[in-house]
Structures are given as C-alpha cells and as structure tokens.
Amino acid sequence: MNNYEHTGTLAALRDDWIMRSMLSRVGDIPELVLLPVLRVVAEDRAAVDAGWADITAQRTRTRLFEPPRWSWKRRYGQFVRELEWAITELTRVMPAEDVTELVSSAVAARLRRWLRYVLPTFESVRLVPKGMYPSVMDAGVSFATFLVGPIHRTGVEADGTLVYDIPECAMHTSVSAPEAQTNSCLMGCKAACEKVFDRDSAFPLEFDPHLPGLGCTLRVHPAAPRDTRAAIA
Questions:
Q1: Which domain of life is it from (predicted)?
Q2: Which of 57, 166, 188, 222 is deepest in the core (most CB within 10 A)?
Q3: Would you call 150 helix, strand, or coil by DSSP?
Q4: If DSSP states are collapsed to H, E and C, what string results for 168-213?
Q5: In the chain, where the domains are located
Q6: Which burial class, exposed, middle or buried, applies to 231 when counting CB atoms under 10 A from its CB (0-12, 13-18, 19+)?
Q7: Which tens digits make up the pLDDT trace of 96-150?
Q8: What is the pLDDT of residues 68-87, one digit of tens each?
Q9: Nearest of 222, 191, 223 to residue 208 by alpha carbon
Q10: Three-state secondary-structure class, residue 149
C-alpha cells in the first residue's frame, strides 16, 4: 500500500511551512479563545493565570538556523501542549459536550478561513474516475504528514471508503514527552476536522483514534452524489 513518511529535507521544509501557515490561523486559540472562557467559568481565576503562566513558560524561542524538522516539532508541540492544558482545565468546570462544541467550532471556523481558497477546488475530486480515485486521494493525503506524521493506506472498503493507518499521530509525538493528548485529539482534531470535512464535503473524513494509544485510523468516505445528499440528511 502507499506509504507516506515525513522524512527528508524537502518534506521537512514543506511540513514546517504548512505548519507555520496553519498556526498563523489557529495558533492563538488556546490563549485568545479558550483562556478567556476559562477565566470566566473557573472558581479561582488566580489559579488559572498561574497555570497558564507555567505552561507558557515552556515556550522556546526560535533558534538561529533552526532545522525545519525541529522548527516544525517545536511550533506544533507548543500549540498542542497549550491547547491540551486549556481544554483539560475547561473540562474540570464545564460539561465535556459543551467544551467539545466550543473547541471544535473555534478550530473548524479558523480552518475554513485558512483553507478558504482551497476548499472549493476539492470539489473537483468528484470528477475523478473511480479507478483513479484511490491514487489521487493518496497523493492528497500525503500532504497531511505535517499534521499527523507518517500515514499509509491499508485498504479500501466495499463502498469505496479509503482506510489509512496513522501509527503514531504527530499531535501526540510533537510534545516533549510523547503521550496521548486526549482532549486535543478528540476535540481539536477529530471533532473539528469532521466538521470541516463533513458528509456534504467532497471527501467526508472519519477519525478513529486508538486512545490511549498514539495511533489513529482515518477513513476517507466517498462523496454523496449531489442530488442525494439532501435525502441522506
């Protein structure tokens, strides 16, 4: 099956560039969206501010001539670490369903803004001949290494759904001590991405995280025909 690693200088440069671009849109969500809500709903605002100070103290500055792979990991790890902290603290004082809606909606809105010029072009996937569809989608999925790390297709289901395996998602391994970033995974990635690439999109996505492990199964479902999507809903 097709296997996409994120090794090599060109791949490292690509992943770092895409990560920088994405974080320019979503990177401030922990501080500007979630932290203000947490300060309002938490009983001890001073404790919240102290906790935030502790987590942001782990930020590191850009090093001169920093290798792109280290730059990518540092930036991604910082974002995930702060996102996980903010979400975890919110779940202590709010229902998980409400936190999921808050986080996934914020991330999805920013992702749509980031991809505003690209999303319309994805509709062309509907025109790809059935026999070429897997290879075309494989090429597209290869760009996801900046977000998930190595990924490879393991099969095709009866309805044409493509199944991909992510052995160890980069959302978990980008932090200093790799461990499952459960809340960021479920709310900031799975729920948010499934909102952006829902069943009305050109390729509906379904994430199946292997928590508490670091892996994940990604399913890329075929798009519903335009004239039947309303009936399915």
A1: Bacteria
A2: 188
A3: coil
A4: CCHHHHCCCCCCCCHHHHHHHHHHHHHHHCCCCCCCCEEEEECCCC
A5: 3-232
A6: exposed
A7: 999 999 999 999 999 999 999 999 999 999 999 989 999 999 999 999 999 999 9
A8: 999 999 999 999 999 999 99
A9: 191
A10: coil
